[in-house]
TrEMBL record:
Residues 401-425 are annotated as: Disordered. CDD domains: AAA, HLD_clamp_RFC. Keywords: ATP-binding, DNA replication, Nucleotide-binding. This is Replication factor C large subunit.
Protein backbone atom coordinates (compact mmCIF):
# COMPACT_ATOMS: atom_id res chain seq x y z
CA UNK A 1 0.00 0.00 0.00
CA UNK A 2 1.07 3.56 -0.66
CA UNK A 3 2.34 5.62 2.28
CA UNK A 4 0.98 8.79 0.67
CA UNK A 5 -2.14 10.11 2.35
CA UNK A 6 -5.13 8.83 0.40
CA UNK A 7 -6.95 12.15 0.82
CA UNK A 8 -4.13 13.68 -1.27
CA UNK A 9 -3.63 10.72 -3.60
CA UNK A 10 -7.30 10.61 -4.60
CA UNK A 11 -7.97 14.33 -4.57
CA UNK A 12 -9.93 15.42 -7.69
CA UNK A 13 -7.68 16.96 -10.34
CA UNK A 14 -10.51 18.27 -12.49
CA UNK A 15 -13.91 19.85 -11.83
CA UNK A 16 -15.52 16.85 -13.53
CA UNK A 17 -14.16 14.66 -10.71
CA UNK A 18 -15.66 16.84 -7.97
CA UNK A 19 -18.90 15.21 -6.83
CA UNK A 20 -22.07 16.66 -5.35
CA UNK A 21 -21.18 20.32 -6.05
CA UNK A 22 -22.78 20.92 -9.47
CA UNK A 23 -24.30 24.33 -8.65
CA UNK A 24 -21.03 25.51 -7.11
CA UNK A 25 -19.04 24.44 -10.17
CA UNK A 26 -21.39 26.30 -12.52
CA UNK A 27 -21.24 29.46 -10.39
CA UNK A 28 -17.44 29.36 -10.30
CA UNK A 29 -17.18 28.75 -14.05
CA UNK A 30 -19.51 31.67 -14.78
CA UNK A 31 -17.55 33.94 -12.42
CA UNK A 32 -14.15 33.01 -13.87
CA UNK A 33 -15.38 33.40 -17.46
CA UNK A 34 -16.70 36.88 -16.58
CA UNK A 35 -13.09 37.69 -15.57
CA UNK A 36 -11.83 36.35 -18.90
CA UNK A 37 -14.34 38.58 -20.70
CA UNK A 38 -13.06 41.58 -18.76
CA UNK A 39 -16.39 42.21 -16.99
CA UNK A 40 -16.32 40.50 -13.57
CA UNK A 41 -19.32 41.26 -11.35
CA UNK A 42 -17.13 40.46 -8.34
CA UNK A 43 -13.36 40.52 -8.17
CA UNK A 44 -13.37 37.78 -5.53
CA UNK A 45 -15.46 34.83 -4.43
CA UNK A 46 -15.72 33.57 -0.86
CA UNK A 47 -16.17 29.80 -0.65
CA UNK A 48 -17.92 28.88 2.57
CA UNK A 49 -18.28 25.41 4.02
CA UNK A 50 -17.17 23.08 6.82
CA UNK A 51 -13.82 21.24 6.67
CA UNK A 52 -13.58 18.42 4.16
CA UNK A 53 -16.17 19.59 1.62
CA UNK A 54 -13.51 20.47 -0.96
CA UNK A 55 -13.12 24.26 -0.90
CA UNK A 56 -9.38 24.21 -1.67
CA UNK A 57 -9.72 21.19 -3.94
CA UNK A 58 -12.33 22.83 -6.15
CA UNK A 59 -10.12 25.93 -6.53
CA UNK A 60 -7.15 23.76 -7.55
CA UNK A 61 -9.30 21.74 -9.95
CA UNK A 62 -10.61 24.89 -11.62
CA UNK A 63 -7.09 26.27 -12.08
CA UNK A 64 -6.11 22.95 -13.67
CA UNK A 65 -9.11 22.89 -16.05
CA UNK A 66 -8.53 26.46 -17.23
CA UNK A 67 -4.74 26.00 -17.43
CA UNK A 68 -4.10 28.82 -14.97
CA UNK A 69 -1.35 29.36 -12.43
CA UNK A 70 -2.59 29.03 -8.82
CA UNK A 71 -0.88 31.10 -6.15
CA UNK A 72 -2.00 29.72 -2.80
CA UNK A 73 -1.58 31.31 0.62
CA UNK A 74 -2.95 30.14 3.94
CA UNK A 75 -4.25 33.33 5.53
CA UNK A 76 -4.37 31.81 9.03
CA UNK A 77 -0.68 30.81 8.85
CA UNK A 78 0.47 34.20 7.57
CA UNK A 79 0.29 35.93 10.90
CA UNK A 80 2.08 39.05 9.82
CA UNK A 81 0.24 41.74 7.94
CA UNK A 82 3.32 42.17 5.73
CA UNK A 83 2.81 38.64 4.38
CA UNK A 84 -0.55 39.57 2.94
CA UNK A 85 0.68 42.89 1.63
CA UNK A 86 3.99 41.82 0.11
CA UNK A 87 3.12 38.42 -1.38
CA UNK A 88 -0.53 38.76 -2.32
CA UNK A 89 -0.37 42.35 -3.57
CA UNK A 90 2.60 41.62 -5.82
CA UNK A 91 0.83 38.57 -7.18
CA UNK A 92 -2.36 40.53 -7.83
CA UNK A 93 -0.74 43.30 -9.85
CA UNK A 94 2.33 41.80 -11.55
CA UNK A 95 2.27 39.63 -14.66
CA UNK A 96 2.33 35.84 -14.43
CA UNK A 97 5.55 33.88 -14.05
CA UNK A 98 4.59 32.00 -17.18
CA UNK A 99 3.98 34.85 -19.59
CA UNK A 100 0.44 34.97 -20.92
CA UNK A 101 -0.79 32.18 -18.65
CA UNK A 102 -3.61 33.35 -16.37
CA UNK A 103 -3.47 33.33 -12.60
CA UNK A 104 -5.83 32.63 -9.70
CA UNK A 105 -4.97 33.84 -6.20
CA UNK A 106 -6.20 31.56 -3.41
CA UNK A 107 -6.33 32.85 0.18
CA UNK A 108 -7.21 29.83 2.32
CA UNK A 109 -8.88 29.90 5.76
CA UNK A 110 -9.47 33.64 6.04
CA UNK A 111 -11.65 32.98 9.10
CA UNK A 112 -8.47 31.82 10.86
CA UNK A 113 -7.18 35.40 10.98
CA UNK A 114 -7.19 36.69 14.54
CA UNK A 115 -8.80 40.14 14.55
CA UNK A 116 -6.60 41.24 17.49
CA UNK A 117 -3.23 39.61 16.79
CA UNK A 118 -3.51 40.22 13.04
CA UNK A 119 -5.09 43.67 13.20
CA UNK A 120 -5.19 45.19 9.74
CA UNK A 121 -5.11 41.87 7.84
CA UNK A 122 -8.78 41.97 6.80
CA UNK A 123 -8.59 45.60 5.55
CA UNK A 124 -5.42 44.62 3.66
CA UNK A 125 -7.28 41.76 1.94
CA UNK A 126 -10.12 44.13 1.05
CA UNK A 127 -7.62 46.57 -0.49
CA UNK A 128 -6.09 43.65 -2.35
CA UNK A 129 -9.49 42.70 -3.81
CA UNK A 130 -10.17 46.26 -4.93
CA UNK A 131 -6.79 46.60 -6.70
CA UNK A 132 -6.29 43.10 -8.10
CA UNK A 133 -5.85 42.33 -11.80
CA UNK A 134 -6.49 38.63 -11.25
CA UNK A 135 -9.41 36.62 -9.83
CA UNK A 136 -9.22 35.93 -6.09
CA UNK A 137 -10.73 32.94 -4.27
CA UNK A 138 -11.12 33.10 -0.49
CA UNK A 139 -12.13 30.12 1.66
CA UNK A 140 -13.63 29.98 5.14
CA UNK A 141 -15.07 27.31 7.41
CA UNK A 142 -17.35 29.87 9.04
CA UNK A 143 -18.04 32.84 6.81
CA UNK A 144 -20.53 34.25 9.34
CA UNK A 145 -17.81 35.09 11.84
CA UNK A 146 -18.38 38.79 12.76
CA UNK A 147 -14.78 39.63 11.82
CA UNK A 148 -15.53 38.71 8.18
CA UNK A 149 -18.45 41.11 7.80
CA UNK A 150 -16.55 43.48 5.50
CA UNK A 151 -15.24 40.60 3.36
CA UNK A 152 -18.79 39.35 2.85
CA UNK A 153 -19.67 42.77 1.44
CA UNK A 154 -16.97 42.79 -1.26
CA UNK A 155 -16.87 39.12 -2.35
CA UNK A 156 -19.42 36.83 -3.98
CA UNK A 157 -20.51 34.29 -1.36
CA UNK A 158 -20.76 30.66 -2.53
CA UNK A 159 -21.79 27.88 -0.13
CA UNK A 160 -20.46 24.33 -0.54
CA UNK A 161 -22.64 21.55 0.80
CA UNK A 162 -21.49 18.45 2.62
CA UNK A 163 -20.98 15.27 0.63
CA UNK A 164 -24.12 13.12 0.81
CA UNK A 165 -23.99 9.52 1.99
CA UNK A 166 -24.50 7.98 -1.48
CA UNK A 167 -21.66 9.90 -3.22
CA UNK A 168 -19.52 9.40 -0.07
CA UNK A 169 -19.99 5.62 -0.29
CA UNK A 170 -19.14 5.65 -4.01
CA UNK A 171 -15.96 7.60 -3.28
CA UNK A 172 -14.85 5.21 -0.52
CA UNK A 173 -15.69 2.13 -2.59
CA UNK A 174 -13.65 3.49 -5.49
CA UNK A 175 -10.64 4.00 -3.21
CA UNK A 176 -11.04 0.50 -1.74
CA UNK A 177 -11.04 -0.97 -5.24
CA UNK A 178 -7.95 1.02 -6.28
CA UNK A 179 -6.07 0.05 -3.10
CA UNK A 180 -7.31 -3.59 -3.25
CA UNK A 181 -8.80 -3.38 0.25
CA UNK A 182 -11.58 -5.76 1.35
CA UNK A 183 -14.43 -3.46 2.36
CA UNK A 184 -17.75 -4.57 3.79
CA UNK A 185 -20.58 -2.36 2.43
CA UNK A 186 -21.84 -1.93 6.02
CA UNK A 187 -18.36 -0.80 7.04
CA UNK A 188 -18.35 1.79 4.25
CA UNK A 189 -21.81 2.91 5.38
CA UNK A 190 -20.62 3.25 8.98
CA UNK A 191 -17.73 5.50 7.88
CA UNK A 192 -20.15 7.64 5.84
CA UNK A 193 -22.36 7.98 8.93
CA UNK A 194 -19.64 9.06 11.38
CA UNK A 195 -17.87 11.41 8.94
CA UNK A 196 -20.91 13.76 8.69
CA UNK A 197 -20.14 14.69 5.07
CA UNK A 198 -16.44 15.42 5.66
CA UNK A 199 -14.73 13.58 2.79
CA UNK A 200 -11.20 14.16 4.12
CA UNK A 201 -12.14 12.76 7.52
CA UNK A 202 -13.84 9.73 5.94
CA UNK A 203 -10.86 8.91 3.70
CA UNK A 204 -8.46 9.24 6.65
CA UNK A 205 -10.61 6.80 8.67
CA UNK A 206 -10.64 4.36 5.75
CA UNK A 207 -6.86 4.51 5.35
CA UNK A 208 -6.09 4.18 9.08
CA UNK A 209 -8.23 1.03 9.41
CA UNK A 210 -7.22 -0.52 6.07
CA UNK A 211 -3.48 -0.14 6.60
CA UNK A 212 -3.61 -1.93 9.97
CA UNK A 213 -6.28 -4.60 9.46
CA UNK A 214 -6.21 -4.95 5.63
CA UNK A 215 -10.01 -4.90 5.69
CA UNK A 216 -12.80 -2.52 6.70
CA UNK A 217 -15.87 -3.86 8.54
CA UNK A 218 -18.75 -2.31 10.45
CA UNK A 219 -17.49 -3.75 13.76
CA UNK A 220 -14.02 -2.25 13.27
CA UNK A 221 -15.46 1.17 12.46
CA UNK A 222 -17.75 1.14 15.52
CA UNK A 223 -14.92 -0.03 17.76
CA UNK A 224 -12.21 2.37 16.57
CA UNK A 225 -13.99 5.53 15.40
CA UNK A 226 -15.93 8.16 17.32
CA UNK A 227 -18.58 10.25 15.63
CA UNK A 228 -17.23 13.55 14.36
CA UNK A 229 -18.40 16.51 16.39
CA UNK A 230 -19.28 19.58 14.38
CA UNK A 231 -21.23 22.81 14.33
CA UNK A 232 -24.19 23.54 12.06
CA UNK A 233 -24.12 25.95 9.13
CA UNK A 234 -27.02 28.45 8.78
CA UNK A 235 -29.14 26.25 6.50
CA UNK A 236 -28.73 23.19 8.73
CA UNK A 237 -29.54 25.29 11.78
CA UNK A 238 -32.77 26.56 10.24
CA UNK A 239 -33.86 23.10 9.15
CA UNK A 240 -33.12 21.59 12.58
CA UNK A 241 -35.03 24.37 14.36
CA UNK A 242 -38.08 24.42 12.09
CA UNK A 243 -38.26 20.63 11.85
CA UNK A 244 -37.66 19.93 15.56
CA UNK A 245 -40.20 17.58 17.15
CA UNK A 246 -38.87 18.06 20.68
CA UNK A 247 -37.77 21.13 22.64
CA UNK A 248 -34.24 19.80 23.20
CA UNK A 249 -33.70 19.32 19.45
CA UNK A 250 -34.53 22.95 18.65
CA UNK A 251 -32.39 24.26 21.50
CA UNK A 252 -29.44 22.07 20.48
CA UNK A 253 -29.67 23.46 16.94
CA UNK A 254 -29.59 27.06 18.23
CA UNK A 255 -26.64 26.44 20.56
CA UNK A 256 -24.48 24.47 18.08
CA UNK A 257 -24.85 26.85 15.14
CA UNK A 258 -21.70 28.38 13.67
CA UNK A 259 -23.60 31.65 13.11
CA UNK A 260 -23.33 34.35 15.77
CA UNK A 261 -26.47 35.01 17.81
CA UNK A 262 -27.52 38.33 16.28
CA UNK A 263 -27.10 37.12 12.71
CA UNK A 264 -28.94 33.86 13.49
CA UNK A 265 -31.95 35.92 14.59
CA UNK A 266 -31.87 37.63 11.18
CA UNK A 267 -31.68 34.24 9.43
CA UNK A 268 -34.71 32.96 11.35
CA UNK A 269 -36.64 36.19 10.82
CA UNK A 270 -36.07 36.05 7.04
CA UNK A 271 -37.35 32.49 6.77
CA UNK A 272 -40.30 32.34 9.22
CA UNK A 273 -42.77 33.52 6.51
CA UNK A 274 -41.39 30.88 4.13
CA UNK A 275 -41.65 28.00 6.60
CA UNK A 276 -44.94 28.82 8.34
CA UNK A 277 -48.20 28.66 6.38
CA UNK A 278 -50.64 30.04 8.93
CA UNK A 279 -50.44 33.78 9.62
CA UNK A 280 -51.09 33.21 13.33
CA UNK A 281 -48.03 30.92 13.39
CA UNK A 282 -46.02 33.65 11.63
CA UNK A 283 -47.18 36.16 14.27
CA UNK A 284 -46.20 33.86 17.13
CA UNK A 285 -42.82 33.15 15.49
CA UNK A 286 -41.98 36.83 15.15
CA UNK A 287 -43.28 37.52 18.66
CA UNK A 288 -40.90 35.07 20.36
CA UNK A 289 -38.06 36.12 18.05
CA UNK A 290 -38.58 39.74 19.06
CA UNK A 291 -38.32 38.73 22.72
CA UNK A 292 -35.13 36.79 21.93
CA UNK A 293 -33.70 39.97 20.42
CA UNK A 294 -34.54 41.94 23.58
CA UNK A 295 -32.89 39.37 25.83
CA UNK A 296 -29.82 39.29 23.57
CA UNK A 297 -29.48 43.07 23.73
CA UNK A 298 -29.64 42.98 27.52
CA UNK A 299 -27.20 40.06 27.68
CA UNK A 300 -24.68 42.09 25.66
CA UNK A 301 -24.89 44.84 28.28
CA UNK A 302 -23.24 42.41 30.71
CA UNK A 303 -25.92 40.10 32.06
CA UNK A 304 -24.85 37.00 30.10
CA UNK A 305 -27.08 34.71 32.19
CA UNK A 306 -29.93 35.95 29.97
CA UNK A 307 -28.32 34.22 26.98
CA UNK A 308 -30.01 30.99 28.04
CA UNK A 309 -33.40 32.62 27.41
CA UNK A 310 -32.21 33.72 23.96
CA UNK A 311 -31.55 30.08 23.00
CA UNK A 312 -34.91 28.98 24.42
CA UNK A 313 -36.80 31.63 22.48
CA UNK A 314 -35.14 31.43 19.08
CA UNK A 315 -34.91 27.62 19.26
CA UNK A 316 -37.94 25.90 20.89
CA UNK A 317 -39.91 29.16 20.95
CA UNK A 318 -39.80 29.53 17.16
CA UNK A 319 -40.04 25.78 16.45
CA UNK A 320 -43.26 25.39 18.43
CA UNK A 321 -44.88 28.58 17.19
CA UNK A 322 -46.46 26.23 14.65
CA UNK A 323 -49.75 25.16 16.21
CA UNK A 324 -49.80 21.95 14.13
CA UNK A 325 -46.90 20.61 16.23
CA UNK A 326 -49.00 20.85 19.35
CA UNK A 327 -52.10 19.11 17.93
CA UNK A 328 -50.17 16.33 16.21
CA UNK A 329 -50.97 17.26 12.59
CA UNK A 330 -47.55 18.70 11.71
CA UNK A 331 -45.73 17.48 8.60
CA UNK A 332 -42.22 18.43 7.52
CA UNK A 333 -42.17 20.96 4.68
CA UNK A 334 -39.10 21.41 2.54
CA UNK A 335 -38.25 25.08 1.97
CA UNK A 336 -35.44 26.72 0.05
CA UNK A 337 -34.15 29.01 2.79
CA UNK A 338 -33.07 32.55 1.89
CA UNK A 339 -30.08 34.62 2.96
CA UNK A 340 -31.06 37.54 5.22
CA UNK A 341 -31.94 40.51 3.01
CA UNK A 342 -29.96 42.56 5.55
CA UNK A 343 -26.72 40.98 4.26
CA UNK A 344 -27.50 41.91 0.65
CA UNK A 345 -28.65 45.39 1.66
CA UNK A 346 -25.45 46.09 3.58
CA UNK A 347 -23.42 44.96 0.57
CA UNK A 348 -25.33 47.19 -1.87
CA UNK A 349 -25.26 50.27 0.36
CA UNK A 350 -21.62 50.02 1.43
CA UNK A 351 -20.49 52.89 -0.82
CA UNK A 352 -23.23 55.28 0.32
CA UNK A 353 -22.72 54.32 3.99
CA UNK A 354 -19.00 54.99 3.71
CA UNK A 355 -19.73 58.36 2.12
CA UNK A 356 -22.28 59.18 4.85
CA UNK A 357 -19.76 58.32 7.57
CA UNK A 358 -17.03 60.36 5.89
CA UNK A 359 -19.27 63.41 5.43
CA UNK A 360 -20.66 63.24 8.98
CA UNK A 361 -17.14 63.00 10.43
CA UNK A 362 -16.12 66.20 8.60
CA UNK A 363 -19.21 68.03 9.83
CA UNK A 364 -18.78 66.69 13.38
CA UNK A 365 -15.15 67.82 13.45
CA UNK A 366 -16.03 71.31 12.22
CA UNK A 367 -18.99 71.69 14.60
CA UNK A 368 -17.41 69.93 17.61
CA UNK A 369 -20.28 67.48 17.95
CA UNK A 370 -21.02 63.78 17.53
CA UNK A 371 -21.56 62.23 14.10
CA UNK A 372 -25.14 61.33 15.10
CA UNK A 373 -25.92 64.97 15.83
CA UNK A 374 -24.27 65.99 12.55
CA UNK A 375 -26.56 63.64 10.60
CA UNK A 376 -29.78 64.45 12.48
CA UNK A 377 -29.44 68.20 13.00
CA UNK A 378 -26.91 69.73 10.59
CA UNK A 379 -27.37 67.85 7.33
CA UNK A 380 -30.70 69.60 6.44
CA UNK A 381 -28.93 72.98 6.55
CA UNK A 382 -26.05 72.02 4.28
CA UNK A 383 -27.45 74.12 1.39
CA UNK A 384 -26.27 77.33 2.99
CA UNK A 385 -22.77 76.06 3.86
CA UNK A 386 -19.71 75.86 1.56
CA UNK A 387 -19.57 72.34 0.13
CA UNK A 388 -16.14 72.42 -1.51
CA UNK A 389 -14.65 69.90 0.91
CA UNK A 390 -17.16 67.15 0.10
CA UNK A 391 -16.83 64.53 -2.63
CA UNK A 392 -19.61 64.01 -5.22
CA UNK A 393 -20.73 60.85 -3.42
CA UNK A 394 -20.86 62.66 -0.07
CA UNK A 395 -22.90 65.47 -1.63
CA UNK A 396 -25.28 62.90 -3.10
CA UNK A 397 -25.86 61.42 0.36
CA UNK A 398 -26.32 64.87 1.92
CA UNK A 399 -28.92 65.88 -0.68
CA UNK A 400 -30.71 62.58 -0.23
CA UNK A 401 -30.98 63.16 3.52
CA UNK A 402 -32.18 66.71 2.88
CA UNK A 403 -35.03 65.40 0.72
CA UNK A 404 -35.88 62.75 3.31
CA UNK A 405 -35.87 65.37 6.06
CA UNK A 406 -38.15 67.65 4.03
CA UNK A 407 -40.55 64.77 3.41
CA UNK A 408 -40.64 63.90 7.12
CA UNK A 409 -41.24 67.57 8.05
CA UNK A 410 -44.12 67.74 5.55
CA UNK A 411 -45.61 64.56 6.98
CA UNK A 412 -45.39 65.94 10.52
CA UNK A 413 -47.12 69.20 9.47
CA UNK A 414 -49.88 67.24 7.78
CA UNK A 415 -50.31 65.08 10.88
CA UNK A 416 -50.63 68.20 13.06
CA UNK A 417 -53.29 69.60 10.69
CA UNK A 418 -55.22 66.34 10.84
CA UNK A 419 -55.09 66.32 14.66
CA UNK A 420 -56.29 69.94 14.83
CA UNK A 421 -59.15 69.23 12.42
CA UNK A 422 -60.24 66.21 14.50
CA UNK A 423 -60.25 68.34 17.66
CA UNK A 424 -62.49 70.92 15.99
CA UNK A 425 -65.00 68.25 14.98
Amino acid sequence: MSHLQWSIKYRPRSLSEVENQEEVKEELKSWLESWMNGKPNYKAVLLNGPPGVGKTTIAEAMAHDYNMELLEMNASDSRRLNDVKSIAEKASTSSSLFGEKGRIILLDEVDGINSRQDAGAIPAIIDLIEETKFPIILTANNVWDPSLRELRNVAKLIDLKRLGKIPMKKLLERICKAEKVICDPKGIGAIADVSEGDARYAINILQSIAEVYRRVTEDLVKELVRKKERTLDPFETLRDIFWAKFFWQARAAATTSEVDYELLIRWISENIPLQFQDMEDVFRGFDVLGKASIFLRRAKLGDWDLLSYVFDLMGPGVAFAESSKLNGSWKAKWVKYQFPSYVHLMSKTKESRDALRSASEKIAKACHCSTDKAINEYFPFMRVLPLDEFSPQELKVIKGIERESETKNGERQQQRKNIRSRKRT
